[in-house]
Amino acid sequence: MVILNWNGKKLLEQFLPSVIEHSGSANLYVADNASTDDSVAYLSEHHPEINIIQNKENGGYAKGYNDALKDLTEDIFVLLNSDVEVASQWLDPVIAEFEKDPYLQAAQPKILDYKNKSFFEYAGAAGGFIDTLGYPYCRGRIFDTIEKDEGQYNDISPIFWATGACLFLRREAFWNVGGLDEDFFTHHEEIDLCWRIQSRGGVVKYIGTSTIYHLGGATLTAAHPRKTFYNFRNSLLILVKNAKGSVVWRRIFIRLLWDGVAGLRFLLQGKFGHFLAVIEAHFSFYSLIPKFLQKRKQWASNLKYATINSVVWRYFIAKKRNFNNL
After folding, report:
1. pLDDT above 70 for 217
2. For labelling alongside 94, which of 67, 76, 208, 286 has CA 20 to 30 A away?
3. Angle at 134 between CA 131 and CA 137, to 5 degrees
């Protein structure tokens, strides 16, 4: 189990004890992304049982984990955010499912909000999906609408992507598809990874019999324009890289139009930073198209990646706010 840390001493102080207490005999690592605070000194002094991996630079989520995992030999990796509290016996149901299903390559538990434990948490909730235009949504969370946990997702179910907040992976599958794509830096890299895993015959599941509590926004809050930038840019890049066929270009064009509407909405709401982030995301996307066309030659597949055409239409126009009503 690897926790990626960057200047997160306070988070380690708050959340690491629950991970240590409830993770049994699992090997625990903290991968430090070149922190400038005293995170490493704190770990050495207060948690000598933790294995420390010191990355040479802050390469974001993708490079940080790629660097941290390259020398590990455990059969199952658990990529866990530093702002997560875990429940008792949280590992057992997920590991049991990996042992039961040889095709299972990636999974996530139920993710509830640390600040309001009766509700799902934004980043992952009860498992992720995307629509044909690349917009992500979750069981239990569509855009800013968060469902209350009433046991409606206490199942084990195939999903399209598992969240990077708590991502279980078979080591062999992770490296067979080349690990995380470092060009994403952060946000949506887990969607890209799960897409590639499935294109090679792997299965991704949600394990609702395991529960964690995620604080969320520890690195970039939802209100931060940089998060908007990465979300808009990277969700376009995953389509270029992974969706085979000429129809993807029509979908990207429609998606760019919807993004323009979203940008205008930000502007009308007075969120000028987010409006500029959408514009910057598009120009960054255009600049990366040649590089991702090269990736496309290797990774584009006929995998059916969406079950609905537009979650934007269903949410904002048809007013479908609950996953089970989509």
Report:
1. no
2. 67
3. 55
Is residue 218 predicted with pLDDT exceeding 80? no
Q: State the residue range of the domain holding 103.
A: 2-214
Residue 206 structure tokens: 């949600």
Domain total of the chain: 2
3-state secondary structure of 72: coil
The DSSP code for 325 is G
| Whole-model pTM over 0.85 | yes
Contact status, residue 166 vs residue 212, Cβ threshold 8 Å: yes
Which two three-digit tokens encode residue 118?
A: 């009766």
Q: Helix or strand or coil: residue 31?
A: strand
- Quickly count: other Cβ atoms within 10 Å of residue 66's Cβ: 19
- 290 backbone dihedrals φ, ψ, rounded to 5°: -55, -40
Q: Are 242 and 210 found together in one domain?
A: no
CATH number at 84 reads 3.90.550.10
For residue 162, what is the DSSP state?
Answer: -
93/208 Cα distance (integer angstroms): 9
How sure is the predictor about 222, in pLDDT bands with cuts at 50, 70 and 90?
A: low
E-strand ranges in 90-202 read 104-113, 116-120, 128-130, 136-138, 141-142, 145-146, 156-158, 166-170
Last residue of a domain, one of 188, 214, 240: 214
- Measured over the CA atoms of residue 321, residue 225, residue 238 and residue 161, the dihedral's sign is negative
Q: 302 pLDDT exceeds 70?
A: yes
Q: What is the mean pLDDT of residues 16-22?
A: 97
Residue 244: C-alpha distances to residues 135, 168, 303, 309 (Å): 17, 27, 8, 16
**8 A C-beta contact, residue 301 and residue 242:** yes
